[in-house]
Amino acid sequence: xxxxxxGTMALPTPNxxxxxxxxxxxxxxxxxxxAGLALTDAQSVGAPAAAIVEPILSAGGIVPLxxxxxxxxxxxxxxxxxxxxxxxxxxxxxxxxxMFAFEQHDVVPDFVALSKTLGGGLPLSATxxxxxxxxDAFDKGFLHVTSHVSDPLPAAVGxxxxxxxxxxxxxxxxxxxxxRLRAGLEELQRRHEPIGDVRGxxxxxxxxxxxDRESREPDASYGxxxxxxxxxxxxxxxxxxxxxxxxxxxxxxxxxxxAEDIDLGLEILDRAxxxxx
Length: 277
Ligand SMILES: Cc1ncc(COP(=O)(O)O)c(C=O)c1O
Known about the structure:
single chain, alpha/beta, Aspartate Aminotransferase, domain 2, Aspartate Aminotransferase, domain 1, 2 domains, four-stranded mixed β-sheet, three-stranded antiparallel β-sheet, 37% helix, 14% strand, globular, binds pyridoxal-5'-phosphate
């Protein structure tokens, strides 16, 4: 990646396990959000167009937004005349136990972005907004052109995906299988000192590997070694190895995963954690 687009600013990642402003420990009181907004206000005329957030930062290390974060961000956006865009490319359509992750925060976003899960493997994405915003964009003559818009085949697949997720109640399955996986990971945490934190929601979980539990310093090389060893033993335990973020195993199995496969995955992870010590 090069530099961000001029005018874009980043809010600190609200990770209570590793507070970005060295203020909280294990419980986020949202000071990082207020501090982040104060910094963006100081660098802007006070009215950027929108805030974009993931309900669970994925490549950011599986960090679920803390309780109250999204609601406060929505309120702060409204104060500034900004819109709230929720990026549900990874979280939507059942993975976190509800159709959309934002439902768990009692907030209605102005935009929701969908991708990945919507196409069930085909390239399909959707930008969802209110009638009023769409009409406003149309009146202003805003235009988005690209070759592949409203393609019938991926659109039919998207419809089938949504129907299947609803018909098979895969959100409920994500809750059930997610609880099983989480319990297994927490059991591993009791026996493996380098597992500093297990976090996430439903079937989107993260395992934070550290040098020691007091300093919580990330152990990226152990994370890479464990990922490699798991692959050798037959399990893909990490969505993507990300430079600088190798210390968090990002685990997001299919919503249809069988209980035995979760148990087998945990067994293999247990072995890999031991082998790589
Ligand atoms: C959270 C999130 N948002 C957006 C994107 C980009 O999605 P797309 O490749 O469909 O543009 C990704 C892809 O990695 C993602 O993980």
